[in-house]
Protein 1
Amino acid sequence: MEHLSARIASLSPSATMAMNQAGQDLKAKGVDVINLSVGEPDFNTPDHIKAAANKAINNNKSFYPPAPGFPELREAIAAKFKRENDLDYTPEQIVVSCGAKNSLANVILCLVDKGDEVIVPSPYWVTYAEQVKLAEGVNVILRGAIENDFKVSAKEIEKAITPKTKAILLCSPSNPTGAMYSKKELEEIARVVEKHPRVHVITDEIYEHITFKDKHETIGQFDFIKDQVVIVNGVSKAYAMTGWRIGYMAAPLWLAKACTKLQGQLITGPTTIAQMAAIEALNGDQSCIQDMLVAFKRRKELTMKLLKEIPGIETSDPEGAFYVFPKVSSYYGKSAGNRKIETSQDFCIYLLEVANIATVPGEAFGEPDCIRISFATSDEKITDAMGRMKKAIAELK
Ligand code: PMP
Ligand code: GLU
């Protein structure tokens, strides 16, 4: 008999991680699976960053770290905010964690009380709604329409705010849609937030360097709401460091202190060696970001071109990140043999089992009409996968 807390029993497992695992399991059985599920750069961590970690090991950097992260790393992050975003944060306002996922959990747990509402524009990254549930908060899902690039407007946010609203979660460039909020759209949202001092914006900017058209804009630039904004970011995507598990946040001092307290009880602090590597990532040669961006741009064009050749699929054009989020619901109700497609989950299972491509159901992101495809893989694999997908979809009648 299981005796789990209600808190954990009601938590859904991460759908992105689950589909990644399903793809890997099938691969382990000898099936030639193309994995377009989990969102992680397929590049190796650049050599100069790995060298910094090796040096840290050789220099016996093997002791506990300070709870909010090493001062050198927090200084490097403050310098990054100045250099790249023209934002002024002191190192004391920065807390380093085990990935941006951990930073988000800290912020949500430190802000949200039981019954507090958190506005989550959908489609949203799978983890947001679950972390809000963990904090016993209430998710207020605001659905963005495909016609508006899945974005929500300041007006829609304003309508959703109630006396119980504690936070709004923004993600730009977006996982799963690749949509990006413009400076004008962010300023309009900031003007709404300004009217509600109890409302905080948690802005997830982990894909800030992966942009195909316009430059990334942050809502953190509007000084009139500076005390209400928390920026979450990390080294996972920009520097191909997903497994090193280093993320960070910049926040008002009171919130940074609270997150440090929480982290001191939960994880002590993020891994010492990984922090040394992150210092080099942020302070060292930045050309790796551009090199990877060239590949991501080319892969995005390729994915879009091939996807458009598949009938019955509608998609917005991603402006950033490395995902496309096509609408596939025109196939719901269709069958191939004894397989009937009713949901995005069915669609993804069909693609996995018939075409051997792993993708993620839109349901997990709050958008049941779509599926998520990650194009953070080679041109050859993208071409092969899109061909397989076209063929499998053609069987649906
Ligand atoms: N936010 C978004 C939108 C993401 O896609 C990811 C990727 N896992 C994260 C946060 C977390 O990144 P990490 O924990 O690897 O830093
Ligand atoms: N952000 C990635 C994704 O959405 C990594 C998986 C995860 O951290 O859940 O696929």
Protein 2
Amino acid sequence: MNIVTHISELRSLLNGHRLAGRRVAVVPTMGNLHSGHIHLVNEAQRHGDIVVCTIFVNPMQFGKNEDLDAYPRTLAQDAQKLETAGCTLLFAPPVSEIYPDGLEQQTVVSVPKVSERHCGASRPGHFDGVATVVSKLFNLVQPDTALFGLKDYQQFRVITKMVADLCFPIKLIGVETQRESSGLALSSRNGYLTSDEKQRAAVLYQTLLESRVQLQAGSSIEGVESMARVQLEQAGFRPDYYSVCDASTLEPAQHRDRDLVILAAAWMGKTRLIDNLRVQLSSR
Ligand code: PAF
């Protein structure tokens, strides 16, 4: 596996692959790789002749009081895991390579509507940071296919709209969330949890599953949302949002909507966890 930190090296290696007619699949990450990321790399191998993984802890998507400094940086271990997984090329640039003029001078990509609620409301500017860095990475790597985990469901919808609106000729693939046996979604931030918190955190997914059963049995959206919040609080969570939405617009679900997603974010101690679950209702 080639490990490159500079754009010029990345471009020249990728030119060689493209001249040889190879299809490129990219897996953008912020590193601290777990088996969910490796699953993305494995999936990427089905879509590309070569797999590029990017590791960049993107300062633009962190708010002022968020965990940018504490975010785990484990490049040597990550590179080892990617090598074992059969990744072709790792691009791990320093901040100065991606934002040479600083964050203040950076052109910003802002995706309307779908960015605004949920994590967009709780973390102002977060999705501008994500859309901006992902569009830069897409321009640098010029992949045929890009893969993202669906744990970050809203992020996937934001990137889907950005790709359509900005005419990126890239096929996006959302990959199912990988979970621990307790149901807890794999996330780099799980490493912040104590073992007691980790056990209690499994209630987030259990609550989503129960909400789905209730919605499919005809319970009201408002009733399901408020019951879920109570259940999360009882498990020691501080809910941020818990919202039944239309799966494509992410607007609050209306009674006629059939293809839904429940989006959830909640604090367990000092750790903010997110998860979601798709819900199909039968047509009336
Ligand atoms: O999901 C992530 O790890 C990040 O938000 C991403 C897509 C790599 C952009 O920094």
